[in-house]
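> tool_call: predict_assembly(chains=three)
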Amino acid sequence: MKSSTRIILVIVVLALIPAVVKLQALIDPQRAQFQPGKGVGSMITQVGKSPVILPSQFVAGTVIGLREVVAGLLWVRANDFFHSGNYEAIVPLTRIVTWLDPHQIDVYRVGAWHLAYNFTDTAQHADRRYLIPAITFEKEGVDNNPHVSDLEFDLGFVLYSMKAYQFDKALYWTKRGASEKDAMLPMHRQIAHAYEKCGRIEDALKQWQHCIQEGQDLLKKDPKDFRARDHYQVSKRNYDLMLVRKSLREDLNKHPIDVGFEGGFKRLGPRRFKISGKINLPDATRINVQLADDDYEEHDLSKFSWDVDPNETALYDLGIHGIFTENGQFSRVWDVTKDTKQYPFKKDKYTLILTFNPRMAPDFVQDNVGWSGEGITDKKYLDTKTNPGVRMVRKVIHLERKDII
Amino acid sequence: MTILTIAKTTLGEALRKKILNIFLLVAVAMIAFSVSFAFFSYREEITIIKSMGLGVIAIAGMFIAIVLGINLVPAEIERKTIYTILSKPVRRHEFLLGKFLGSLLTIFVNISLMSIIFIALVAWKNQWHPEFALLKGLLMIFFQLYLLSSVALLFSVFTTPVVNFFLTTAVYIVGSLSDITLAMSRGEEKNFIVKGFYWALHNLVPQFANFFTQNPLIHPEVVIRNEGIYYAQNIIYAIVYAAVLLIIAILLFERRDM
Amino acid sequence: MAIAVKTEGLTKNYRLLMHKDPVNALTDLNIEVQEGEIFGFLGPNGAGKTTTIKMLLGLTYPTSGQAWILGKPAGDIEVKREISYLPESPYFYEYMSGTELLRFYANLFRISGSAQKEKIEHLLKLVGLYNDRYKPLSQYSKGMLQRIGIAQALVNDPKLLFFDEPTSGLDPIAHSEIRDLILKLREEGRTVFLSSHQLSDVEMVCDRVAILNRGKLLKLGHLDEMLFGGSVEITASGLDASAVEKIKTLAKSVAAGDGLVTMSQDEGEGVGKVIDAVRAANGQILSVIPQKRTLEGLFMEIIREVNK
C-alpha cells in the first residue's frame, strides 16, 4: 500500500470518529425513551426501605440485551409456582420480572391480584395489609404502560371496586381504562355499574343509553358482530332494570325504616371470638367487619414495596366476605389461632367497626334501603359523615389485647 | 470480483462448520420450544414466544459472529491457505474485506433461517397472520452483528483466537451497558477522570445496546418516537463504525508479516 | 539472460517479546536467479529458506535490503500475475472438490468462462487428478493434495514458480513424477525456485543451488561445478614398481593391483604432472575420470565447516 493511501485512510478514520460520537449522542436520548432499564438504576431498585441490587444470576442476561428473555423465563417459573400453589414465591418473581421488563402487563396484573387476593388466612380471607402494595404495584404498571386498558380497568374494577370498596376511585380508573383505544366493550358497561356504586344514578342511566347506542351503531356496520349484539342486549336490559328500580326506590326516603342495629364482640378463647348482632333488614344483608389496630391506616406508598409491617393487624371482612344476616340476626365465629402471621395482635388497643353500607348491598336489599340508604335510619348508629352522601349504620367498639388474646 | 470470490469461499466453509451448525440447531430448538410454555392469556403466550425468539436469535447470532470472526484470519494463516491466496494478485485489503463479507453472508444466512422459523411460529399463534414488524428487530440484530463481526475481524488481525474470543466478548458486554456508561459519564458529583473514562467507554466502544429494540416489538404499546429515524441512525452507526474498524484492520494487516 | 529473482542485502530480523537480542532469520542475502533455470534453495531447518520465499512473495517484509521479481519490486501486485507458489504441506479448503478449488484460484486471476473450464480440465489431466475432480479434498491423499497444489500453481501459466518442499511426504513414484514435471516446466521456459530438503531431487533437477545456514548464504553456484570440482581418477597399466614409487610423490593416492595402477589427484596442474610421469615411465593411460561428489556430501561438509 502506498504511503499516501495509508495517510488518507488514517485521515478518514480520524474524521469518522467524531461522526460516530455525534451519532451516538443522537441515538442515546431516543434509546432511553423506549428501552427498559435506565442507567445504573436498571440494576438497583428500591423495595421497601432499602435499595436492592438485581440478583447476580440475572445480571448476565440483562447485560447482553436479554432482559426480556430472562423476564419471560422467570415468568414461566412463576406460573409453575401458581400451579403448585406456592403463592408466596410468586410475588418476588413479579417484582423481578417487572423490574427487568416494565412492559410485562400481565405480570403487573397477576402480581397485583396475588397481593390483593392470595395472602390468606386458613379461612381464605385475604390479608388487608397487602391491598395498598397491590394498588401501588398496579399503579406502577399503569405508569410504565400508559394507555393500556387492562391495567387501568383492573385497578378500577378488581382492586378499588371489589377489594377496597372505594367507589369514587373505582369509577375514575374504570373510565380511564374504558377510554383507551384497546378497551373492550364490557368496560363501557362497567362504567355504568361504577356510577351506580357511587350513587350517581342519572349518570349511570346516561351511560347505559350510551352503551345501547354504541351497540346499535356497531350492529349497523356489521349485523353479525356478536360482541356488539351482546353489548346492546345487556345494556338494554340493565337500563330497563335500572329504570324499574329507580321508580321502585323513588319514595323510600319518605318512610325510612329504623333498622335497630346492634352488634357485639365476645371472646371465646385465645384468638377465638364471636361477633354477632341484629339488624332489621332482609336476609342476606351483609354486615362489614373491620377489626384492626387502633392506629391502623391504609396509606399510599410512593413506591411499591411488599414489606408489610409484621406488627400490624387488620382483619377486614367486607362486602361478600361480611357476615350475612338471617332473620334479622347475624353471627360468626373467628378462629385465628393458626394465623399469627397475618393477625399478629401485637399492639395493646384495637378498634372493631361494624357497618352496614347500602352502596355495598345487593340489589334486593337496596330495593328496601335505596342506593344510598335513603330508606333507612337508626336511633343509635346512623352515620352520614363517614361516607358523605351515604346513610349507613356504623358501630365502633374499642377493644384491648387481652380481649382478643 | 476478488472480494466476492473470497467471500463465497468463506461462506462455503463457514456453512459447513460443525460448531456453527450446532448453534443454529440449538437456537431453532429453543425458539420452537417457547411454544410449549402454557400461560393463562394469549398475550402472555405471544410475549414469551417473541421474547424468546428475538433473544435466542440475538444470542445465537452473537456466538456465531464471534466464533466466525475470531478464526477469520488466524485459521487461514495456520493452515497456510493465506499464502496461496496472497501470492496471487490479491491485495491484502481485498482478502480482508472478502473474509468480512463472507462472514456477514454466513451470519445473514443463519439469522434468516432462524427468523423464518420464528416468524412462522408467531404467525401460527396469530391464526396465520404474519407479523412482519418483527423483521425490524431482526434487521437490528443483523446490524448489531455486522458491527460485532468487524470488532472480531480487527482483533483477529493481531491476536490469537482464544484472546480474541475474550476481547470481543468483553467489548460486546461493555458495549451493551450503554445506559450505565452514559449515566456514569454525567453528573456533577463525579471527578472529570471518572467521567472522562466512562465517556470514552460510551463513545469509543461500539454501543451494541443501541440495537436492542426487542421491547417495542414484544410489547406493541411501547412505541419508539421517530422510529424510522432511530433505525436509520443505527444502521448508519453500524456501517460507519464498522468502516472505521475495518480501515484500522486493513492498516494493521498491510504491515503484518505472514 | 534476464534475471527472474534478485536480492540485495536482503535481511530479516524478528524482535520477540522478552528477548534482548533480535532473532536473525536472514542476513544480507545476495542472489540472482536467471530466467529459465531451476534454482535450488537448500539449508537445514531454520536456515531462512521459507522466510526468503515469503519476502520474495511479499508475504513478509524485509528488515532491510531489497528484492526484485521479474524486474519489479517483490510484492508488486501486477507481478503476481506471472508467478505462483506451492507452500510446504499445503492445506486447501477441504469442502471443495479439485475442480472447485481450481475454479477458486482461476477466479482470483480473473480467468473465467470457457477459458477457465479448459484450463481446469487441462491441469487436472496434467497432474493426473481428472478422475477425482469431483471428490472433496478431505478425501484426497497427501500425494493427491500435493498434485492439486501443483495444479493451482499452474493456473495462471506462471513464468516463475516457487516450490517449497514439493515432494515432502511422497512415495518414490510420486517423487519421480514431480521431478519430471519440474523439468518439463524448464523446457517450457519457466523459472523454478525450488526450496527442498530432498537433496537427491535437487541434484537431479537443479541448475544452480544456494546453500543457507542460520540465515546466511554459504555457497552459491552451478551444481556441476560444485559437485565436480573435486579429484580426478587416473588408471594406467605397464608401470613398474619404481615408476609407482615416483608417482606416489605426485599423486594424492595410489593403488596398484592386477597390473593396473589407480591414482587420484585434485583437479588442476597436478593431474597433468601425474599423466606426464606415467608417460615418462612408458606406462599406458587407460582412463582419466573426474570424480563427482554427492550433493549430500557437499552439503554436510559445508554445514560441518560452519558449525566448527
